[in-house]
Amino acid sequence: MLGYILRRILAVIPVMLLVAVFVFLLLRLTPGDPAAIIAGDMATPAQLDRIREAMGLNQPLHIQFVTWVGQLLRGDLGVSLISNTPVATMVADRIGPTFSIAILTIIMSVAMAVPMGVLAAWKHRSAADYAVMTFSVLGFSVPVFVIGYIFILIFSLQLGWFPVQGYTPIGSGFGAFLSNAFLPALTLSTIYIALIARMTRANMLEVLGEDYIRTARAKGAPERTVLFRHALKNAAVPILTVIGSGFALLIGGVVVTETVFNIPGIGRLTVDAILARDYPVIQAMILLTSFLYVLVNLLIDLSYSFFDPRIRY
Amino acid sequence: MFNRLSLASKTATLVTAALLGTTMLSGAAFAQSTVKAVMHSGLRVLDPVITTAHITRNHAYMIYDVLIAQDSEFQPQPQMADWTVSDDMLTYTFTLRNGLTFHDGAPVTAADVVASLNRWGQKDAGGQVIMDRTASLEATDDTTVTWTLTEPFVPMLDVLSKQSALPPFIMPARIAETSADEAITEYVGSGPFRFVEAEFQPGLMVVYEKFDDYVPRDEPADWMAGGKVVNVDRVEWVNMPDIQTAVNALSGGEVDYVEAMQVDLIPLLEGDPNVVVETREPTGMQTMTRMNFLHPPFDNQQVRQAALKAIQQEPVLAAMVGNPEYYSVCGAILGCGTPLASDAQAETLTQGGGADEARALLEEAGYDGTPVVLMAPTDMVALATQPVVVSQMLREAGFEVELQPMDWQTLVTRRASQAAPAEGGWNIFITNWMVPEISNPISNPMLNGRGSDAWFGWPEDETIEALKEDFIDAETPEAQVEVAQQIQTHALDNGLLIPLGQYTLPQARRATITAMIQSPVPVFWGMQKAE
Question: Which of A220, B81, B136, B150 is the most exposed place for a label (fewest CB within 10 A)?
C-alpha cells in the first residue's frame, strides 16, 4: 500500500507540470490586461505601457514562464499584480472559510442524505420514497442562489436566527462559527443531499436484492443490522466516490454561495483574480485546486479498502 | 483498532480534526463606534497616483489630506494650506497650516508636499499641463511651497483642488519619491483616518481608525472642503460583490451603509423605518459613447454626426436606470449642474427626432454599410444595457451594427488596440464618468485631441486643443463659460463623445447613521452613529 501511495504521489508531479504550462499559456492567450485594471479608466495608452513595463508584463512569454516556474520551485507563489500582496498570504487567508464550510456541508449532507437514501430504498415505492425523490429533484433543480436567498429571507430576516452574511473563524468560538456557517452550508447541502440520497437509494436497492441480504434476513438478523451492516457497507463504495468528488468540488470554490453569503473563500478569490487578470493569483489557485483534486481522489481510493476489504493496493 | 471504532465516532473524530485544522482568522475587536460600510467595489490598489479607480481615490481621502479642496460650488478652498497668487499670476505660494502630522508622528513639511506634487504631476492629465508650464516648484521653508509658472495658468487652483480623478494627495517625501509607474508600498498619510494595514484583506475588507492627532479646519465641511471632524472610532469597508446581499445585510442591521444602491432594489428598503435611501449628491454620473476616429466609418465626421443624431438619451437611461427619479437627460459634455455646463448642439440627444437627419447624413457621407463593432461589456451592471439600446438606435438610422458581448477586462484591453475592427480593434464603446471628473475641459479625457497621445479613440483635433488653450487663458469665470460653450459646440460637432445622459447614485444607510456629508466622494468625517 505504501508503494501505491508513493507512486500516486509521484504521479502528481507531471500532472502539476502539465497544469502549470496549460494555465500559464491559457491566461496569456486570454484577452485582458492587469495594467489596465490598475491604471483605471483615465490612463492613456502610453501610461498603460509604462505600467506594463514596470510589472514585467512586456517581457517575452518564455522569460515570464521561466521566472514563474523558478519562483514555484523555491516555494514562492509570487505577488498579486493588483494588490501587491503575497499570493501565499491571500490563499492562506481564504482557504480557511472555504475548507471549514466544505467540511460542514459534507457532514450535513451525509448526515441527512444517507439515512434518506436508505429509507427510500427500504421503503421502496412508498410515500417516504417519493418524498425523498421529490426532494432530490428539487434540490438538484433549484439554483443554489435562489435557495440561499430563500433561507436568508426565512431564517435571517424573518426569524432572525442567523446572520445574513459573513464568516467567523472557528478560532472565535464554534458557536459563532456555526452561526455564520450554518446557512451557507445548508444551502450548499441541498444539492449534495439530493445527489448522495439518490446514489445511496440506487445502490441500496441493488444491494438489498442480493442473495446475502435474503440470507441475513432468513437467519433472523434485525432489520437495522441488515440495512446498515450488510447492505449499506456494501453499497458504500460508489457513495464514497460521490462524497469525495463533491468535497473536491466544494474546495474548488463555490463562488455563488460565497457571494450570496459574503464568505471570503477561495472561490471568490479565484473569480476576482480572473476578472482582474491577476495572473499570479489565478495560476496559484488553479494549481492548488488541481493538487487538492488529486489529493482527494487519492484519499477516496485509499478509503475504498476501509469499507471493502476485497480492495487491496 | 481503527476498524473497531464505530463509523460515527471515526467520522466525528476526523471532522473535528479537520475543522480545527482550518485556518483560523483572528476576530476583529470592535471599537465602541464602528461604522460598517459596503462600498461600490473592493479595494485592491492602494496607490492613489498609479490608478484612477474611484475606490482607491475614496480610500486616499480617508488616509491622506490635500493641499486645497473643492467645495459644492466647485470652488477651491484651503485645506492643508492657504495660498496667495502674485499679480502676474505666475507665482503661487502655499502656506501649510499648523498641526499637520503624518500617521507615523512626523510633521508634514513643505518638502513632503513638493515630492507629492511632483509624483502626481507625472500622472494626472491636469497636473501634466501644469508641470509643462512650471518654472520651479520648491519648498521655500518648512511650511511654504512656492510654485512658479512660465506663463499664467488660470485654472491652476481648479486643477489642484479637483476631487477626481487623481487629486494631489500629500504623502511623506520618502514615499512620494517612488516612481510614478510603480505602486507605493507604505501607506502613511496625514488624513483624518489611519489605515490599519494588519487588517487589510485585498478585495475583501479594509479598516480605518480615527487618527487622534488630526486637527480639522474650523470651517464646516462642504463637499471635500472644510473641517474633517471625525465622530466615529473605526470604519470598516466590507466588499460584497452581490448587492442583494448588501441590501439584506443593511436590513438585518449587519452593516450601516451601502454606497451604491441598485435602483431596482430600492423598493425592498422603502418600507423599512430603520433604513434611509437617498441621493448622495445631485450631479452623479454621466454615461457616454466614444467612437474610434482611426477607422471607417467613424473616421468621417459626417458619420460621427449621424451617430449622434441617431441617438436619443431617454430610452438609454430608461433601460439603464429605470426609475426617472434617478436619471435626467443632459446634453452637456461637461455635465449638467456644473458651472461650465452648456447643452448647445444636443437637441436631438435630449429630445429625439434626429433619425431622419442621421439617415441623410449617412447617405451624404457615402456610408457603405461597413459594420460598426460596438463593444458591450456584460459583466458590469452599469454598462450592460446602454450598448443594446444604442445599437438598436444606430440600426434604425441605417448603420450596420455588430454588437460584440465581452467582459469588461476584455473591453479595456481591446479598446487600447489601434488595429482595424476586423483585426481585433473596435469602433464604439460606452463608459461612465463621475460628473465632477469630466466637468473641466482641461482634465476631461474626451477633450484630448492629440491623436495617438489622446484617450482611446485617438481624435486628431487641433481646434479642441486651441479652444482648451483659450480656456486656460480666459481670465474671468464669464470668459471661461464662453469658451466652454464653444468647446461644447465643437466637441459634439466633431463627435468627440456622445453624452447619453446623467444619473444619480442612490445610497442607503441605517437611520442610526446621521450627519452624512453630501459629496461626490463618500466621506466618513462628519458622520455620526447613534448606538
Answer: A220
- Give the CA dihedral B360, B366, B370, B376, nearest 10 degrees: -40
- B207 inside domain: no
Distance (Å) from the C-alpha of residue A27 to the closest C-alpha of chain B? 12
Q: Is A260 within 8 Å of B53 when comparing Cβ atoms?
A: no
Residue B106: CATH number of its domain: 3.90.76.10
CB atoms A40 and B53 under 8 Å: yes
Q: Do A259 and B238 touch (CB under 8 A)?
A: no
Would you list the domain boundaries of chain A? Answer: 2-73, 94-307
The architecture that CATH gives domain A94-307 is: Orthogonal Bundle (1.10)
Contact (CB<8Å) B18/A156: no
CA–CA dist A33, A52 (Å, integer): 9
A200 to each of A97, A241, B282, B477, how far by Cα in Å?
29, 11, 60, 79
Domain that holds residue B347: 285-503
What are the pLDDT tens digits along chain A (313 aa)?
788 888 888 888 888 889 889 989 988 888 777 888 777 777 777 777 888 887 888 888 889 889 888 988 898 998 898 888 899 999 999 999 999 999 999 999 999 999 999 999 999 999 999 999 999 999 889 998 999 999 999 999 999 999 999 999 999 999 999 999 999 999 999 999 999 999 999 999 999 988 988 999 898 889 888 888 888 888 888 888 888 888 887 876 688 899 999 999 999 999 889 888 899 999 999 898 888 888 888 888 888 877 777 777 6
Residues of A in contact with B23 (CB under 8 A): 92-93, 95-97, 99, 169
Provide the number of CB pairs (under 8 Å) joining chain A to chain B: 174
Domain count along chain B: 2
Q: Which residue of B has its CA nearest to A95?
A: B23
DSSP string, A6-17: HHHHHHHHHHHH
Which residues does chain B have within 8 Å of residue A39's beta carbon, measured at their own beta carbons? 50-52
Contact A93 B185 (CB under 8 A): no
Q: Are residues B351 and B491 in the same domain?
A: yes
B19 min Cα distance to partner chain A (Å): 6
What secondary structure letter does DSSP report for B379? Answer: S
Contacts of B179 in chain A (CB under 8 A): 54
Which 8-state DSSP code applies to residue A230? I
> Could you give the CA distance from residue B93 to residue B16 in angstroms, rounded to a whole number?
67
What DSSP designation does B201 have?
A: B
